[in-house]
Amino acid sequence: MSRADQHPEMCNSCNPPPSMGKLVTVLSIDGGGIRGIIPGTLLSFLEAKLQELDGPDARIADYFDVIAGTSTGGLVTTMLAAPNKDNRPLFAAKEINQFYLENSPKIFPQKDAGIFTSAIRLFGAIAGPKYDGKFLRSKVRQLLGETRLHQTLTNVVIPTFDIKILQPVIFSTFEAKSTPLKDAYLSDICISTSAAPTYLPAYGFETKGPDGATRSYNLVDGGIAANNPTLTAVNMVTKEILMENQDFSPFKPMDYGKFLVISLGTGSSAKQEERFDARDAAGWGVLGWLFNKGRSPLIDMFSQASADIVDIHASVLFQALHCEKNYLRIQMILLTTHALLTMDLARD
Prior knowledge:
- The protein has 348 residues and is α/β, with parallel strands linked by helices.
- The protein is 39% helix and 15% strand.
- It has 14 helices and ten strands.
- The protein is globular, with a radius of gyration of 20 Å.
- It starts with a helix and ends in a 7-residue tail after the last helix.
- Residues 1-13 have low confidence and may be disordered.
- Belongs to the patatin family.
- The active site is at residues 71, 221.
- Keywords: Hydrolase, Lipid degradation, Lipid metabolism, Plant defense.
- One of its GO terms (molecular function) is phospholipase activity.
- Its EC number is 3.1.1.-.
């Protein structure tokens, strides 16, 4: 049962805390570049059904206590939870795919140099990131302005990875409210979590607390640590329960029967010919692993492995605690073309 269902009196400017409901509701969205269109489609359908029940103003953020997203999933999370001038979600779910269709060709510009295309792409893979990221950074800053993490309309969890300290950095609304140095601009967080190595440049920024203290971040794509952020979100809620956060006062640690988790993937291939095999990889050096047939095998492999292993752990966890019906993983099996598997193949 959603928070809106439990509380029809819910105002348009804020959501009630989880303590007022029967369940802790969690939405998780994988990384995957332009394949963010897949969860975007699912969320558009879900929001339309919720609007049939609760009216046209219903939004995804009204129904989830926590929304977590990595990389492109972090962008979608922010679209769903960042406030507009009326303190309602910046995007309706049905507008997400339109954003991808309009902007992806500018984020991932496709250059065709005829017979020299492969050579140019190979040189680019050696010389620097495939894309300069300027349009993405400009667009994100334009949309989010100076909105900070603590201002989201529901709790969000967005993983990144700090290459200077070699540690994951998880940005969450929970910590932003108590730790000023984690209360970054949403634009900085979105740019950071989507900075996929070899595709987009790493991103650095600094936060400053009210006491003058500062913290520097040197970040890349959160998929390095958690391309599927489901357990990251669940663990964050568990931590808040352990810390006796009053927003979660009715709930107890490990009481996963009181969790309702929906985890959205960004697609995987069912076609063996779309994948590499040991004969291909046996002779690869650094360049082979980073750039091959227009893709980055190493990035594809660790992101898919990260997403799948989290699903395995979450599924077993909920089964072991006899609440498997409270966990739903939706992963699209792509049956058609190589283009659908590529995180950056955008066409006008």
